[in-house]
Every structure is written in structure tokens, then in C-alpha cells.
Specification:
With 224 residues, the chain is an alpha/beta fold. The chain contains 6 helices and 7 strands. Strands 3-2-4-1-5-6-7 form a 7-stranded mixed beta sheet. The radius of gyration is 18 Å and the shape is globular.
């Protein structure tokens, strides 16, 4: 089974070479564009040169990361709740044709919850629900930082009450240029436009110019 992401990487490299030859971009810009971290997601799976895109939900306690993954899955694949910390484990949600047999030594597969699906539209993506990075439990923090180098896209989830958390900003500042990012202002039924604008402004100060921010609601009683 072939996965589209690897082909996108190769297309990017070919385009960069052509762009340099045509004088559209500099060699330095091309190098930055193609500077993929070779340690990373490709080391997670046994594959023959192709692999899925690795996308992870990141965020603090109670912002609704697990609820977002459950809504995406259409079923409860990640534990959601209100106790602190809510997320203590890593949950992987992926197409059943993706074989996950071995992970790097510091990511023991026996400590990971795996949920599978048959949706062909999602077959090229592995979704990960990460532990709460603001947890007082050191094992949670350790898991987050062990996983970070293996992620392609980080979906950073906040809530109207928790979008200015200090630990969150330290993570953004340290990891901002190492990943692709999407941002989610969850629990928007309790949010205000002023909070959205302030969150966007804060992201700008952290180096994210014109960030992609989604407003979401995952409450069961809300129909959207």
C-alpha cells in the first residue's frame, strides 16, 4: 500500500531543484525547504520507502484534544474526561492496513493504545492523541518530548480559558520552527471573538505569521 506523503516530499525536493535552476529561489531557501528531519516519522514504521503523514493533537489539560480525536474517529478511541491529568497515554488512530510492529526503543508499543479504522479517505494519516504536556506527572512530559521529533504536523489545541498558558508558550517557542502547525481554539461555544484575536496576536509574537486557527465545538449537545 502506497502512502501519499512520501511522494509529496519527493515532489517538494524536485520542485526546489527546478526553482533554483530557474532562479526563482536561492540555494539556501531550497535547502531550508527540503531540510527534513531524517530521524523522524519514517523511523516509526517498517515501510518500503513510503509512509503515512503523522499528525498529533497537542495541548494542556481539559482543552478537548481527546474529544476532537473522538469526533474525528466517530467513536471513542481516546479517553476524555475532566480529571487532572486527563490524557495519560498516547493513542494512535490509523488505517488497519498500516502495520505498526516496532517503534523506537523509548516509545514502547505496549504503553500505547492503538485504534484502527477502515476509512479509505483517512488511510494516509496516522492520528495521535498526546498526553497533557502541562501535567505534573513527569512521565507525561517525558512521553511528549520523546514523541515530538517523530511528528509531521502538530495540531495545537487550546480553550478560551487556557490559550495563554505559560507552559504552552514555552513549548511553542522551543518547537515552533521544527514542525508544521495548525491551531484549534476548542470549546468555542464558550469563547469570544476578542479571545480569538488575542490568541492570534500571541501566536504572531511567537513567530507564527497568519496562523491557521480553527474554532471548534465538540460538546455532544451542540449541532453544527
Amino acid at each position: 500500500m502506497a502512502y501519499d506523503y512520501s511522494e509529496l516530499v519527493e515532489q517538494t525536493k524536485r520542485w526546489a531543484e527546478q526553482a533554483v535552476a530557474a532562479g526563482w529561489i536561492s540555494q539556501e531557501a531550497a535547502q531550508n525547504l527540503c531540510d527534513f528531519d531524517e530521524r523522524t516519522p519514517k523511523t516509526l514504521f517498517n515501510h518500503n520507502g513510503s509512509r503515512p503523514l503523522i499528525v498529533a493533537f497537542m495541548g494542556g489539560t481539559g482543552v478537548g484534544k481527546s474529544s476532537l480525536l473522538n469526533r474525528l474517529a466517530g467513536k471513542a478511541v481516546a479517553k476524555a474526561g475532566i480529571e487532572r491529568p486527563t490524557s495519560r497515554e498516547v493513542t494512535l488512530f490509523h488505517h488497519r492496513e498500516i502495520a505498526i510492529q516496532h517503534l523506537p526503543e523509548k516509545l514502547p508499543i505496549e504503553q500505547i493504545k492503538i485504534a484502527q479504522h477502515d476509512d479509505e479517505a483517512k488511510k494516509n494519516i496516522v492520528w495521535i492523541d498526546m498526553p497533557d504536556f502541562d501535567s505534573t506527572e513527569q512521565s507525561n512530559k517525558a512521553q511528549v518530548f520523546e514523541w515530538l521529533p517523530h511528528i509531521d504536523v502538530l495540531i495545537y489545541v487550546v480553550s478560551p480559558e487556557r490559550y495563554r498558558d505559560e507552559k504552552a508558550w514555552r513549548l511553542l517557542l522551543s518547537e515552533g520552527n521544527r514542525h508544521a502547525w495548525l491551531f484549534v481554539l476548542n470549546q468555542w461555544d464558550r469563547g469570544q471573538q476578542a479571545q480569538y484575536e488575542d490568541f492570534k496576536q500571541q501566536l504572531g509574537k511567537a513567530g507564527f505569521i497568519e496562523p491557521i486557527i480553527f474554532k471548534t465545538v465538540c460538546a455532544e449537545t451542540v449541532s453544527r
